[in-house]
Amino acid sequence: MGIRITRAKSLSQAYQSLGNLKQIVVEADELLYVLAVSWDSDAFDEKPSASNVKELLKQAEEAFDIVIVDCPSGNGNAVAARALNLAKAVILLSGGSGVPAM
Q: Which Gene3D superfamilies does this one have (predicted)?
């Protein structure tokens, strides 16, 4: 999609500015909004608190019709745990190791 997320429109900014989600998300298309780490950050540098994740997901649920959370499912992942807790539906994708990428 060629979306370049700046720090001002990034996930870390959303955690710092709870309450302004609609102003932070990037409008990728008429009906698609994206919130992700900035293009010059490492996603694994983000270590949000469980309360920040809960609040951000609550705001997303109130602001948008459908919220898709794409995150690693590792043990101790606050985003995955909170998203699963709040989800009305879950799509689980898993891949085996040794499967070559296409």
A: P-loop containing nucleotide triphosphate hydrolases (3.40.50.300)
Predicted confidence (pLDDT) per residue in 65-92, tens digit? 988 887 776 666 777 777 888 788 878 7
Tell whether the torsion through CA atoms of 53, 56, 58 and 64 is positive or negative.
Answer: negative
As a 3-state breakdown, the chain gives helix, strand, coil percent values, each rounded to 5, of: 40, 5, 55
35-64 pLDDT, tens digit per residue, is 888 877 766 666 777 788 888 888 998 999
Instruction: Give the other-Cβ count within 10 Å of 3's Cβ.
Output: 13
Distance between CA atoms of residues 37 and 42, nearest Å: 7
Reading the block at residue 92, the tokens are 């689980």
Residue 57's contacts (CB-CB under 8 Å, 6 or more residues apart) are 67, 69, 82, 83, 86
> Is 10:16 a contact under the CB 8 Å cutoff?
no
Q: Which two tokens stand for residue 42?
A: 């490492």
pLDDT of 100 higher than 60 = no
- Give the whole-angstrom CA distance, residue 95 versus residue 59: 31
